[in-house]
Amino acid sequence: MSKIDHLKEIKISGVGASPGICIGKAYLVDREGVEVVEKYFIDEKKIEREKKRFRNAVRKARDELKAIIDNTPEEIRQHSNIFEIHVVLMKDKMLYGKTLDTIEKEHVNAEWALKTVVSNVRSIFRNMEDDYFKERASDIVHVTDRIMRNLVGAEMVSISDIDKRVILVAHDLSPTDTSQIQLERIKGFVTDRGGRASHTSIIARALEIPAILGLGNATDIIHNDEVIIVDGTTGVVIINPTEQSLIEYEERKNAYEEKKALIARTGRILAETTDGIRMQVMGNIELPEEVVSVIDYGGSGIGLYRTEFQYLSRPYFPSELELFEKYKDVVEIMSPKSVTIRTLDINGDKAVDYTAGSEEDNPALGLRAIRYCLRNPEIFKTQLRAILRATAFGNVRILFPLISNFEEIMEAKAILNGVAESLDKEGVPFKKDVEIGIMIEVPSAVIMADIMADAVDFFSIGTNDLIQYSLAIDRGNRQTAHLYQPFNPAIIRMIRHVSDVSKDKGIETYMCGEMAGDPIAIPILLGLGLSELSMNPQSIPVAKQMIRLLDSSEAKLFMKEVLKQTTAKEVMDLLQNTYGSLISDTIYSDQ
């Protein structure tokens, strides 16, 4: 498609992957990969030579990647696992092995065999319900592209060679590409593909540069050397901005940087309301290396450690020792602060051997999370043994996901107790009084909260799923995404019910969903009596700042008015009218 010729200011929107604003000239990077692959047949006598050609391409790609890893900037060394998974994928039996098999069985060239295999694997990932695992399809594409370029002899463009002060514009950027960004040269980047859960997005946030992904057609619209504005907070790109827009966004940029610096300086100050009520503000992590970010941003601990990453894109389940070493590292670094480890929340067949097993018509309502673990107790026991062993090195809480009935709690606890007994007999040290919690993310758990509270030590509300399951909407469906409303009165009443039950039963209620990291929601969460919020590390300073501006007694009175509202819009209007001036004092004001 030819680029659109334009003189007027144009705005396009995507996914705000990393907050902040940058203004500068666009630098278009060719990252579309090898799109055209021809198929031809290989003579029987030349099959081994073709397989060798493929192995050599993989070996070269792996060496290139390892060289880049060795030169990774210090800012993102904590995310080395992201690149390691790309190295592992190159030798994965579902990519490497299947491609070799296809060459041999179908007598086709290596390029066509690789393209065929990857197309099948990628479609499976993209059909998954979980956003994080959907994004893993992009990892497969990035790895394949590097191998394919070596097969066809195409040159790889190195981001590190760019010697201008620019904003990158690309069809797609791999984590490896992003890791080569020189902060003194690259102001930010935008891509046609990608989402907030992608590894590229994670690295952008680690580098703290503005980034917008999933724009769709940015490379068709934006010209090389054209001035653009990137607002990573709102996900808006402005092309050919007017003088007025340039002045406005320069002011926003300066205000953002000033507030960011101020909040960073106060990040370690306690999150205590004006009337002396203290809240714990924790961090959500999915990679062990993200602990550093939680500490840097002033987190009070780890409120949600998603453990799925270690099960991803590998031909076998991780061993007890592998899991234990990762958990131990996180727990030791955070000690004496608490670490809440959530047990496996994925359909293991798809996470490990993703071409095996039967397809589910509706995976979101299928065999996932605690259901999968209870159906596969040996896999569950391995993880529980690793978690219990890690308790000897710090303060650990165990969290069971997607609990929908009381029997699941009792069955999970019975397996946990059995594991504890076996460790005790073996003389393996662990803490015997570890706290057990459940995720409140389906309506049945809300309704049965009073019964479930008798069997656990705490509740953790996962608003992402609770909103979807309660309002019967799919956030990924553009036709219904507008109905995803955290401030829907039904959702607020459900959270209130869970909080009231926990108070009556003498246990704590926490929140680890996205709602917890939204400063606009904090007056409601404080008014409902939640004692702990957990969020992505970058949101911690803003949340703590918001809490310090609030009075808890006023927030409780405010909740009486909130509960009278009948629509999400009415709740939002009430929030703005009551707390708008305080919200404007956070880093997100005017963004």
Task: Walk me through the structure.
The protein is an alpha/beta fold and 591 residues long. The chain has 3 domains: 110 residues, Glucose Oxidase, domain 1 (3-Layer(bba) Sandwich); 109 residues, Orthogonal Bundle (Enzyme I, Chain A, domain 2); 312 residues, TIM Barrel, CATH 3.20.20.60. It is 46% helix and 14% strand. It has 24 helices and 16 strands. The strands form 2 sheets. An 8-stranded mixed sheet has the order 1-8-7-3-4-5-6-2. The chain has an 8-stranded parallel barrel with strand order 9-10-11-12-13-14-15-16, surrounded by 4 helices. Helix 11 links the parallel strand 9 and strand 10. Helix 1 runs antiparallel to helix 2. The protein is globular, with a radius of gyration of 25 Å. The N terminus is likely disordered.
Features:
8-stranded parallel beta barrel, disordered N terminus, 8-stranded mixed beta sheet, about 600 residues, about 45% helix, TIM Barrel, 3 domains, Glucose Oxidase, domain 1, single chain, alpha/beta, about 15% strand, Enzyme I, Chain A, domain 2, globular
Indicate the CATH architecture of the largest domain.
Alpha-Beta Barrel
Query: Sheet bearing the most strands, described?
Result: 8 strands, mixed
Low-confidence stretches: 1-5, 348-358
Gyration radius, in Å:
25 Å
Helix residue percentage? 40-55%
Tally of helical runs: 24
Specify the CATH class of the largest domain: Alpha Beta
- The CATH topology annotation of the largest domain reads as TIM Barrel
For the biggest β-sheet, the strand order reads: 1-8-7-3-4-5-6-2
Q: Whole-Å distance between the termini?
A: 33 Å
Average pLDDT works out at: 84
